[in-house]
Design brief:
Elements: H1 2-9, H2 23-33, H3 39-57, H4 62-87, H5 94-100, H6 107-128, H7 133-141, H8 143-164, H9 166-174, H10 179-203, H11 207-229
Helix pairs in contact: 1-11, 2-3, 3-6, 3-8, 4-6, 5-6, 6-10, 6-11, 8-9, 10-11
Length: about 230
């Protein structure tokens, strides 16, 4: 059963595109990726991905680019704020505590913990703090751009993981090399669940609290698996 959850983790989403108007955030990520702090592992991945996404989203219409920019300004800042809090002895948001409170993990573990925190912790928050309900519908309709890029990009992450971690090599063998396709399915499923959570938030539905609690428990379980199994 543990291996099934790891299938999901290995294809969690990182982000959608950024635009050149938030170059300051890009610069912060780039700077973090060159430090010796725990933040460097996820910052390096995040910085690489948003650069590729920026190019791809320029082919979409101007309104969608504006929505993506607003979303990314919030989405990126959640990680930057957590890293700043960790470096300055401040309280880290619960979403990022597992990432920053564990020392001496392997790079692939930090990367996966960061991905888990971002998609299963920050995504709905970034949506509700950057877009309204109708704008989110437009934004969501263009996520196929991110899906295609991430599908190609994460193959490199899989190859790195297989090279550096024997448990990931075992995972590849157990699934006959198909684990990243299975992960693609859960990437979409989990992101859609975050969109549903945002919809519940805007509607002030009692279902928001129930779904939010379920997602938090799943995130914690995945965090434990990353730390204990890999």
């Amino acid at each position: 059963m543990k291996w099934c959850y790891l299938l999901f983790v290995l294809c969690l989403d990182v982000t959608t595109s950024g635009q050149s108007s938030f170059k300051e955030s890009w610069q912060k990520l780039d700077s973090m990726s060159k430090t010796n702090s725990a933040a460097k592992h996820f910052a390096s991945l995040y910085f690489s991905v948003i650069q590729v996404m920026d190019v791809e989203y320029r082919a979409t219409d101007t309104f969608n680019q504006q929505l993506v920019t607003r979303f990314e300004n919030v989405f990126t800042q959640t990680f930057i704020d957590a890293a700043w809090a960790n470096n300055n002895g401040k309280t880290i948001t619960p979403t990022w505590q597992c990432y920053f409170h564990n020392n001496h993990l392997q790079p692939i573990q930090y990367t996966l913990l960061g991905i888990n925190a971002h998609i299963n912790g920050d995504y709905w928050f970034a949506l509700t703090n950057s877009l309204n309900a109708s704008e989110m519908e437009v934004f969501s309709a263009n996520l196929n751009v991110a899906n295609k890029v991430l599908g190609r990009f994460f193959k490199h992450l899989y190859l790195q993981g297989e090279r550096d971690n024997r448990n990931i090599r075992r995972l590849r063998s157990l699934t006959f090399g198909l684990y990243h396709y299975i992960g693609d399915h859960y990437l979409i499923k989990w992101r859609n669940r975050q969109i549903k959570l945002a919809q519940f938030f805007w509607k002030k539905s009692p279902a928001f609290t129930r779904l939010h609690q379920r997602i938090e428990e799943k995130k914690k379980r995945i965090d434990r698996l990353i730390i204990e199994t890999l």
